[in-house]
Amino acid sequence: MALLTAEEIGAADDRRHEDVPVPEWGGTVRIQSMSGTDRNSHQAETVILGPNGRPKGIELRDQYARLLARCIVDEQGRRLYVTDKQIQALGQKDAGVLERLAKVAKRVSGMGEEAAEEAAGKSGAPASGSSTTG
Predict the structure, then answer these.
(1) pLDDT digits over 97-120, tens only?
(2) Nearest-CA neighbor of 35 among 73, 64, 2, 5?
(3) pLDDT (tens digit, 9 = 90+) per residue, 75-90?
(4) Shortest CA distance to 90 belongs to which of 33, 16, 29?
(5) E strands, the chain, where?
(6) How far apart (Å, rounded) are the C-alpha atoms in residues 67 and 87?
(7) Cα(55)–Cα(6) distance, integer angstroms
(8) Which domains does the chain have, with CATH numbers?
(9) pTM of structure
(10) Could you tell me the end-to-end alpha-carbon distance of the chain, in angstroms, rounded to an integer?
(11) Calpha distance 70→72 (Å, rounded)
(12) Of 5, 12, 27, 115, which alpha carbon lies 20 to 30 A from 60's?
């Protein structure tokens, strides 16, 4: 297989999505995987840093709404929830529905419990080093 160029990587349509029925809301929502930038931003606003700059906890306030705001999109892939006011309004929806959708958002974005623990500095896994193959 040939090595990809930067242009080929940039042109690749690699964002996944899943349409999820939400009978409580009377329809379906599209959950799209986060970009790497979105995921990093989400993790940065989720981790609480201590005075020494090291992670000391996780910010749980509106956690589902903040995650879903990055993942609920329209048919063109545009986010439906952008402003703080919109995200807060989303957070007022039924917790069970938000949790169910958040599980889908985490799955399509490649996030699991171990990813959350690693972001908070609680992972028991050793730091990965660089590796080369030849």
Answers:
(1) 999 999 999 999 998 765 545 545
(2) 73
(3) 999 999 999 999 999 9
(4) 29
(5) 17-22, 27-32, 47-49, 55-58, 72-73
(6) 9
(7) 34
(8) 15-113 (3.30.2220.20)
(9) 0.76
(10) 15
(11) 6
(12) 27
